[in-house]
């Protein structure tokens, strides 16, 4: 099916489900805001010259004592919370997408090799995946992150924080993709077109990457979409615990951690708005991922 026809078909199917349309629209808005955040933020929360402590702890603009310049209020440093949210959303999405890219890269290669060549190669790769499955993803991410930080000088740990988090999350999730791809490759490798390619003298790498892999990617797209939500949630948890992004590069999890300290002092907006943004983002990604699974899995159509 041509790409344009496929897109029209998916758009027509989505139009029949208002909840999916709403979730997709919200997701696109959030992604757009995150992508353009450095250029559209109302204020630069990192410009110390523009921060005014007299503007600290201001409530949202619609509440008594609020300031129209700060729609969602300010934090303890007088930084605009809306600007922090936009930049934090950008960081969270960046970490989620990059972490899943690492997981897909490792898992796709491992699944292709193990499913196509089988034998001892499959045994070694799948047993490694089984061993990793015995460790909770959160614990493994903490361990990998801690080891990576211990290898870096203290002065470089903060600047390398995003790469450490991405690496930790990416390595902790690859077995899911490896198992999924392996199962798909085993099915594809037994089909007639693969046998014909072998009889024609095609190389293993040519068969694997030109024929088998493209026909094994549909379930990977679905899992990757849903795994972005899991990666964002895990990063937010790590940041809340103090093992994720630093305050100089805040994610939504970092903002929730900072705002939690002000929750019981009456400054609820510092934690509520980042929490709501995270919830809306995760729900939108999951709803879209569920719909994508239904569309790409022929057994569910």
TrEMBL record:
Membrane topology recorded in Swiss-Prot or TrEMBL = Multi-pass membrane protein
Q: Which UniProt keywords apply?
A: Cell membrane, Membrane, Transmembrane, Transmembrane helix, Transport
Q: Which InterPro entries match?
A: BP-dependent_transpt_permease, MetI-like, MetI-like_sf, OppC_N
Protein biosynthesis listed as a keyword: no
> Has keyword Cell membrane?
yes
CDD domains, from UniProt? Answer: TM_PBP2 (cd06261)
A Pfam match is BPD_transp_1
Q: Which family does it belong to?
A: Belongs to the binding-protein-dependent transport system permease family.
Q: Any idea what this protein is called?
A: ABC transporter permease
The scientific name of the source species is: Tropicimonas omnivorans
Origin organism lineage: Bacteria, Pseudomonadati, Pseudomonadota, Alphaproteobacteria, Rhodobacterales
């Amino acid at each position: 099916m041509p790409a344009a026809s496929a897109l029209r078909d998916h758009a027509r199917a989505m139009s029949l489900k208002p909840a999916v349309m709403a979730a997709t629209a919200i997701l696109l808005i959030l992604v757009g805001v995150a992508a353009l955040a450095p250029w559209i933020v109302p204020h630069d929360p990192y410009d110390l010259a523009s921060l005014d402590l007299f503007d600290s702890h201001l409530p949202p603009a619609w509440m008594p004592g609020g300031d129209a310049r700060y729609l969602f209020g300010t934090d303890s440093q007088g930084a605009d919370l809306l600007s922090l949210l936009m930049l934090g959303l950008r960081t969270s999405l960046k970490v989620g997408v990059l972490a899943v890219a690492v997981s897909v890269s490792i898992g796709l290669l491992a699944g292709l090799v193990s499913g196509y060549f089988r034998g001892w190669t499959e045994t070694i790769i799948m047993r490694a995946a089984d061993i990793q499955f015995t460790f909770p993803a959160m614990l493994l991410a903490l361990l990998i992150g801690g080891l990576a930080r211990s290898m870096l000088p203290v002065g470089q740990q903060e600047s390398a924080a995003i790469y450490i988090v991405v690496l930790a999350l990416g390595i902790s999730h690859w077995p899911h993709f490896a198992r999924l791809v392996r199962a798909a490759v085993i099915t594809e490798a037994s089909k007639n077109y693969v046998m014909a390619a072998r009889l024609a003298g095609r190389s293993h790498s040519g068969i694997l990457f030109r024929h088998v892999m493209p026909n094994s990617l549909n379930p990977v797209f679905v899992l990757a979409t849903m795994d972005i939500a899991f990666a964002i949630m895990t990063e937010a948890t790590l940041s809340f615990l103090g093992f994720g992004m630093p305050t100089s590069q805040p994610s939504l999890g970092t903002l929730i951690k900072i705002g939690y300290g002000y929750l019981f002092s009456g400054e609820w907006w510092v934690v509520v708005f980042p929490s709501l943004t995270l919830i809306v983002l995760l729900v939108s990604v999951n709803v879209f991922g569920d719909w994508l699974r239904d569309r790409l899995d022929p057994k569910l159509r």
